[in-house]
Amino acid sequence: MAHDKQNREAIQKRLSRLNGQVQGVSRMVEDGRYCVDILNQTAAIRSALRAVERMLIEDHARSCMEDAIESGDQDRQRVMFREVVELLEKVRD
């Protein structure tokens, strides 16, 4: 199921901001900025990316998983559950 317009716009806005942050870090490296300053920025990028991941997981649970539950299709429900477990394992690291 597609993300609703509001979620899609919020996710796009955050990703655009992240893109700007990554470009800023690239300039910092190019300019030979202090390593700790660069590392602080990369930590901020990781945190912002985790926020995007949370939004996507919540959206998936609210739309795709809810549809699978309402469908009554147990195979589809199992697939969705396995997908979420795998995703959570990936984003945990």
Largest sheet: none
Task: Please give the alpha-carbon distance between the first and last residues.
Answer: 27 Å
Structural class: mainly alpha
Content of β-strand: under 5%
Extended strand count: 0
Average pLDDT, rounded to a whole number, is 89
How big is the Rg?
A: 18 Å
Low-confidence stretches: none
**Helix-strand pattern:** HHH
The helicity comes to over 70%
Shape: elongated
Oligomer: single chain
| Number of helices, counting only DSSP H or I runs of 4 residues or more | 3
Notes on the structure:
It comes from Paracoccus pacificus. Belongs to the FrmR/RcnR family. This is Metal-sensitive transcriptional regulator. It is a single chain. The protein is mainly alpha-helical. It is built from three helices and no strands. It has helices at 5-30, 35-71, 74-92. Helix 1 packs antiparallel against helix 2 (35-71) and helix 2 packs antiparallel against helix 3 (74-92). The chain is elongated and about 55 Å long. The model has no long low-confidence stretch (mean pLDDT 89).
